[in-house]
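Help wanted!
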Amino acid sequence: MELMGGFLTVTAFFLYGVSKVHKEKDALGVLEGMLTLLRELSARLLHRREGLRQVFATYGDPRLEACGFLPALREHDGRDYPSLWNAALRLLPLPAEALPPLQSLGSSLGRVSLTVQTEQLALSISQLETILRKMRDGAYQKGRSTVALWTLGGLLVALLLL
Amino acid sequence: MSWMHYLPAPFLQAVSGMPLHLRRQITELRFRLEKPFSVTAEGRNLFPDKEGRLTDQKNALRVSRPLLDDLLARLTEGSLYAFEDCMASGYIPLENGCRAGIAGDMASTPGGLVFREITSVNLRISRFLPEFARPLTELLKEALPRGVLVISPPAGGKTTFLRSAAYLLATGSKPYRVGIADERCELFLPAGLCDRITGCPKWKAVELLTRTMSPEYLICDELGAGEEAPLLAAQNTGVKLIASVHGSSLEEAARRPCVKALLEGGVFSLFAVLKQNFRVEIFPAGEVLAWS
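Answered by r_m:
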């Protein structure tokens, strides 16, 4: 019975570690989704001069739909986008370091000329690419360490309980 | 009224509070930075307070920078960059033929002229008076050989007249194919056999419509310099042109080189001069060509 309890404790800690790794993978996916959205936005602004309402209404990405980011941007009531964008950012499961470039872009979204807007988009894309590269580089090693640490933690708790 | 959704809350409240008979006659709303908000209705410039009561300039609702920015965001649907070209020409096209004229501080950049700061917005409300051009379209049904030139001073109802003409020609028991060269997105039509090119220079739109849509009538607002060549070419294909030009009289309009070239090219059979209170005076070309 005690062995079974110990086994369950270790398994629970292991699974919690795995879920943490999955969450980080999800964050990676959302960041990739945001990068794709910004590239699409940039292209549609530059080549078709589409309004933001049109872009957000027709663009689809399951990673940004599931967390409510794109649906929030579609609730445009004729007002400007900066407040809408920054409110929608709070719905994204992103690491803290990825937020400043997106917040900076949002502060003037739709309020500036085409040249300035596309330059701001290019800067945000470049900053997010750097963050994504760093996250990807460390993701495998960090994932393994996380699972191992939580499993060891579970083992320690099980030993203390026995 | 569809244009009301463009107004930020304080202006909406002021307009909503105005007497109904005035509200229905509004033709323009003017927003000038740090100045009183004004409304043009029944040919008068009125100053409503925040409750919509008509007052003097001193006590009228004032236009602050945040309110003007909010208005611009609404007019551009939160996408200022998408209207950059139109804005450099001094306007923002809106739904249903409405238009916002803009003024302010401009700057010359490598990409062309841009507004550094917008300090005035004039929201022009479009009207749809389906029967306005009825006297003209009745004459057109008599198989006139050529087109019509509509003459009126600015804000005299040219666009409303052309909109009505397009509507009457493109609908009814014997509709015609009507091509509309609508550079400033003002000639919206709710129905009919209309093909419209918007946001494109008039001379190019005329050329495209003539080549691709084979219209029977071609409608073109506010003729300007350099637009006569494609219009003359279109005339030679048998398309009847209905165009408008700024001017208070036939003589004044005929002095403009573009109009003169079209007169000499024999493009027009009729001239329609718009007067106050939606009155129209129509002259046959012979009377004008004698002195032009």
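OP: Thanks! One thing I noticed: The helical segments of chain A are 2-48, 52-58, 62-66, 69-74, 81-89, 99-106, 114-161.
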